[in-house]
């Protein structure tokens, strides 16, 4: 059964040449476009045919109808953490859609399309609850979640997409659909993990977790101990149960005031640790990593969940960057040696800010009920790469970063995290974020709901025509 919202203006146009919307519509050449499309990753630049600054779902529907009549692709832009450059497309911006609500009795939240995690975390914490946000609360809720969403509690609760209970979606026919397990169940399955290939999510509802505090934080070490730390991490992390989620990274941070002094211009190792349970037990669990090498900074402690950002300490200032990742089936000694050979502290001039290993398994390996299209279920770890993209490095970083992922490929599952697979274009990459059977089903849903491939930007199921 499909429920749609009737449109007062089914053509999407008013009496003049502009569509009827509640937010401004900016056509190509409008000097306001750069400001409207400003986001976290400043390396992503667009040359759109039009930008629809959406204030509500009806604006999104008008944008889709406008694009369909002209044979243009449609993309969505919220916080600008992900995405890919686009040309001659219609881009819908959602940062004006900031409404959200918390139901503490049902332990559920809903958000409009432009909401970031920070206010949701703060509001939920007042009721002893927590959402399944990612490593930074600065990211948008919707884009993160429809890409699967693998955050600091992923081993205990699974992906953020696993806990979505319903969504409002504008599809390629310009209709606003209310989608859940009983209404358009194929769409409900596909959007939760299939990203923006099937429409634009304008509202999302999801369960909150009964988490008020955790024992966690960050430990930073000198890069000289990288080999000891990464090999210790490999052995130690394999012993952890689902209440503990971890990752470890090699960092090369710049000499900037916002970077703690001991971490500037040096190779350092960053352990991220989150344990749900007794703080004393958490201290015992993390002890082998504390003893493995002397720490520059040890911030692991009992904390309110509202301080969860301090685990990863991701930057929030806009910057030009390149990031990619891959899922790993296992992490033997040879994989650690290969990673160290390619990105260890001996490579002082390696143009990468971060090379990380994230641990999965646990609840992340199990399909929820109802199932969804999120990938990575067979992964025990992932490897991720982030590099800066100022003009001198624009042509260097992608090659170096991809080279590192390539040398780790022998231990890969063949899949890549969809939230770290922006700008998919080559035939070899299409479908890589999903297992083959999942990809084939996604294509079937795509052909049914978007037969003209209107949503073909970014993490595309089907390449540009």
Shape, per Cα inertia axes = globular
Q: Radius of gyration, rounded?
A: 22 Å
SSE string, helices as H and strands as E: EHEHEEEEHHHEEHEEHEEHEEHEHEEHH
Number of strands: 17
Architecture overview:
The protein is an alpha+beta fold and 465 residues long. It contains 12 helices and 17 strands. A hairpin with a 4-residue loop joins strand 5 (100-103) and strand 6. Mean pLDDT is 92; it is low at 1-16.
Main features:
alpha+beta, eight-stranded antiparallel β-sheet, disordered N terminus, 465 residues, five-stranded antiparallel β-sheet, 21% strand
Layout of strands and helices, then pairs:
Elements: E1 25-27, H1 33-36, E2 50-53, H2 57-70, E3 74-77, E4 90-93, E5 100-103, E6 108-112, H3 117-125, H4 141-146, H5 154-157, E7 164-170, E8 176-179, H6 185-194, E9 200-207, E10 213-222, H7 226-237, E11 244-252, E12 267-275, H8 279-292, E13 297-298, E14 301-304, H9 309-312, E15 321-328, H10 333-343, E16 354-359, E17 381-388, H11 397-407, H12 436-449
Parallel strand pairs: 2-4, 3-4
Antiparallel strand pairs: 1-2, 5-6, 6-9, 7-8, 7-9, 10-12, 10-13, 10-14, 11-12, 11-16, 15-17, 16-17
Summarize the structure.
The chain is of the alpha+beta class.
């Amino acid at each position: 059964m499909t429920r749609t919202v009737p449109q007062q203006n089914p053509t999407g146009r008013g009496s003049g040449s502009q569509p009827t919307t509640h937010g401004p519509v900016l056509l190509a050449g409008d000097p306001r476009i750069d400001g409207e499309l400003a986001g976290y990753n400043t390396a992503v630049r667009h040359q759109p045919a039009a930008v629809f600054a959406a204030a509500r779902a009806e604006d999104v529907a008008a944008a889709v109808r406008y694009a369909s009549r002209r044979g243009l692709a449609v993309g969505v832009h919220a916080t600008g953490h992900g995405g890919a450059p686009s040309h001659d497309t219609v881009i819908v911006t959602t940062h004006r859609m900031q409404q959200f609500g918390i139901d503490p009795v049902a332990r559920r939240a809903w958000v409009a399309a432009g909401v970031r995690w920070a206010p949701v975390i703060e509001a939920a914490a007042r009721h002893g609850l927590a959402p399944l946000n990612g490593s930074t609360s600065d990211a948008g809720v919707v884009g993160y979640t429809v890409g699967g969403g693998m955050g600091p509690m992923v081993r205990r609760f699974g992906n953020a997409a696993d806990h979505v209970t319903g969504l409002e979606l504008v599809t390629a026919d310009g209709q606003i659909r209310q989608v859940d397990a009983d209404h358009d169940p194929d769409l409900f399955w596909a959007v939760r993990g299939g990203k923006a290939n099937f429409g634009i999510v304008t509202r999302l509802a999801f369960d909150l977790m009964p988490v008020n505090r955790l024992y966690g934080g960050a430990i930073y070490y000198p890069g000289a101990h990288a080999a000891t730390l990464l090999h210790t991490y490999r052995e130690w992390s394999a012993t952890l149960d689902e209440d503990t989620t971890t990752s470890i990274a090699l960092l090369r941070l710049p000499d900037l005031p916002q970077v703690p002094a001991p971490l500037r211009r040096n190779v350092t190792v960053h352990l991220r640790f989150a344990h749900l349970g007794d703080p004393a037990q958490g201290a015992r669990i993390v002890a082998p990593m504390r003893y493995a090498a002397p720490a520059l900074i040890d911030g692991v402690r009992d904390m309110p969940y509202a301080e969860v950002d301090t685990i990863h300490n991701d930057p929030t200032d806009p910057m030009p960057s390149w990031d990619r990742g891959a899922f790993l089936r296992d992490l033997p000694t040879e994989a650690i040696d290969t990673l160290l050979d390619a990105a260890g502290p001996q490579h002082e001039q390696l143009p990468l800010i971060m090379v990380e290993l994230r641990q999965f398994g646990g609840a992340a390996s199990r399909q929820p009920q109802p199932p969804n299209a999120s990938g990575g279920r067979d992964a025990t770890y992932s490897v991720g790469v982030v590099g800066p993209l100022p003009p001198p490095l624009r042509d260097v970083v992608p090659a170096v970063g991809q080279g590192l992922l390539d040398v780790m490929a022998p231990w890969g599952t063949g899949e890549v995290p969809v939230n770290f697979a922006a700008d998919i274009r080559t035939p070899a990459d299409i479908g890589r974020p999903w297992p083959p059977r999942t990809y084939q089903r996604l294509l079937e849903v795509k052909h049914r709901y978007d037969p003209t491939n209107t949503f073909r930007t970014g993490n595309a199921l089907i390449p540009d025509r």
